[in-house]
Design goal:
Elements lengths: L1 E4 L6 H14 L4 E4 L10 H10 L3 E2 L3 H11 L4 H6 L4 H7 L7 H9 L4 E3 L4 E3 L19 H8 L23 E3 L8 E3 L4 E3 L9 E8 L2 E9 L14
């Protein structure tokens, strides 16, 4: 049994409250996150520090990858996209902490694209239905081969960090974020559960408890106002 948290987007105070709820109800449970730790909310730096301290295991999200690319590969398409996707709040959160940014960037780029667990398959946006016929049979039995295929062209709109369309039914529950929902949504056809409940949009941060491909419980925390309502200025 595992807990999986949706897109955090800089909502540190909300994340902390939600993790407390998870631990109080399910002591010692392993906690995962579908990525997008940074951008839009006010406290991206604090979010990354917290997930490290709490040993929360995170996949990389498209916002995390854009942040990394802007800092390490500034002329790439990923880097250029970041400037239009909530970059200003992330920069503001690092304003007086630039000496720690490299450590966080290393953490981001070393985060996996997916966790293929007995309980579920966790990724940021999911395995797109467009990959049907392109994946070998029994691909879930070979994580290295799957990683090689899914790592190809991450900027593609159907990649595992960008996919918005229908997901492929892989014979295991996919737990994903990325696509905004007001509530947790289960797509029966693709056997996928969407858990990005738009914390940065002053809605809520959600975690699902999953056991052997079954949804056991849903825990949520209303967005804490300090995570989203501030006017930042920044400089590098």
């Amino acid at each position: 049994m595992v807990a999986v948290i949706g897109d955090v987007h800089g909502c540190y105070h909300t994340l902390k409250e939600l993790v407390d709820k998870i631990k109080n109800k399910y002591p010692n449970i392993k906690i995962f996150c579908v990525g997008d730790l940074v951008d839009r909310g006010n406290n991206s730096f604090e979010v990354i520090e917290f997930v490290v301290a709490e040993k929360i295991q995170c996949v990389i999200g498209n916002h995390d990858f854009m942040f990394y690319s802007n800092m390490r590969d500034p002329f790439s398409l990923m880097a250029k996209s970041w400037n239009y996707n909530g970059a200003e709040t992330t920069l503001a959160s690092y304003k007086d902490k630039l000496n720690q940014i490299d450590k966080h960037l290393d953490l981001i780029i070393n985060s996996p694209l997916f966790f293929n667990l007995d309980d579920c398959f966790i990724s940021h946006a999911g395995i797109s239905k467009s990959l049907k016929g392109k994946l070998p049979e029994n691909i879930l039995s070979d994580d290295a081969a799957l990683k090689e295929i899914l790592s190809n062209d991450l900027f593609n709109q159907n990649s595992i960090i960008w996919a918005r369309g229908d997901l492929l039914n892989i014979g295991k529950l996919q737990v994903v974020g990325h696509t905004h929902r007001k509530e947790v949504f289960f797509d029966k056809v693709s056997n996928a559960i969407y858990i990005d409940t738009t914390a940065y949009g002053n809605n809520k941060l959600t975690s699902v408890i999953v056991d052997h491909n079954r949804l056991i419980d849903t825990l949520e925390e209303k967005t804490v106002i300090d995570d989203v309502n501030k006017n930042w200025t920044y400089s590098l």
